[in-house]
Amino acid sequence: MAEIVSYSDPLPQLATPGERLGWIFNDRNLYLRRYPEPPPPPRRVPAHLYERLMRAERWATKGILISICVGFGLAGLLVCCGGVVSMGSAGSDDDGGGWVYSFLATLVSIGGIGGAVI
Fold first, then answer.
1. What three-state secondary structure class fits 17?
2. Do 37 and 30 contact (CB within 8 A), yes or no?
3. Residue 63 confidence class, pLDDT cut points 50, 70, 90
4. pTM over 0.85
5. Which of 3, 6, 96, 107 supports an S-S bond with 89, CB 3.0-4.6 Å?
6. Which residues pair with 76 in a beta bridge?
């Protein structure tokens, strides 16, 4: 009769040769051999894909600049509108909603930077 031995860590015993309940040890290196065929030669990239890559790289810089310029241009326009609204209510205690334009200008500028990052 086989006696049961307790181990503190049974994992080192798992991949050792020998018979266990329903498990047969197979050495994975026993049937290891090189693939007989040589690797295939790399194909040339088609010309239309290379041209498409070049166009995308050229457009990337332009797209980033357009996104930043549009974002900051709209932000500047909103700040100017907020200044006009604030000047119209110079005599009263409230600023007349100029903070709304400043908040929108901040959001638009963050959107322009986000568009450039994306």
1. coil
2. no
3. confident
4. no
5. 96
6. none
